[in-house]
Amino acid sequence: DFENAAFTVFVVLVSRVILAFGLSLYIPLSKVDENMVRAHARDAVTSEKFWFRKHMAPPLQSVGDADACEEMSVLEILTGKGSYFPGLIPLIFAYLEAIQCDPETLELMRVYMDFIRRRASGQLMTAAQWMRHKVTSHPSYKHDSIVPGDVAFDLVQACVAVAEGRVRERLLLGKQWIKPLRTDDAYYVPLKQPSTVIHREEREALLERYASRYSGAGGEGDGTNDPDDVPLRRGDAPHSAH
After folding, report:
1. Segments of the chain with pLDDT less than 50
2. Strands 231-233 vs 177-179: parallel, antiparallel or unpaired
3. Interatomic CA distance for residues 110 and 123, integer angstroms
4. What's the topology of domain 125-173?
């Protein structure tokens, strides 16, 4: 549920960013089809590149082709590429600053975004990689592509244990762990909504502060100075981010 919450919040925030910053993420449908084919490859998140729009917003200065697309890794799409593509995660934090997100919610957003970034960089396993690892490392598996019943049973039990917070799986979730779901400490913190669309000059100023913090494998959140472990409830997605 932590993983579901992270990706749900990410998608919602990207949709808010598109509307607030007036972005365009349109690419030719043929490129979308090609991306879908590439996404089916094993370990595509780290091994494949996907077509993405080079310029998501009208720049302050003229560029050659504002509608141009190029191939990018998932990590580049998330954290930025060169000086022309800021990345989705820096855009999200620029948006959260623009709407004056409260510190508690902002810190949870940092946890979610860092989790997604580390998945894209290969620092954390995807769910598919983790399940393959559990199967291939099981003593009953003979590496013959046949999954015995006890291997399948143990895999399901391991998935349930992680989801319920009874087992901490660093290969999958890193330092995060999930505490049993409770309702007595639920909370609601509304975000301040921008009264108007964020204009180009303000958008550029915000991005200048955030884009350099997520430069691929380096910069803030690169795992070299991880914060203390942060316990999270199952499905810990604050209402304020929806």
Report:
1. 216-242
2. parallel
3. 16
4. Helicase, Ruva Protein; domain 3 (1.10.8)
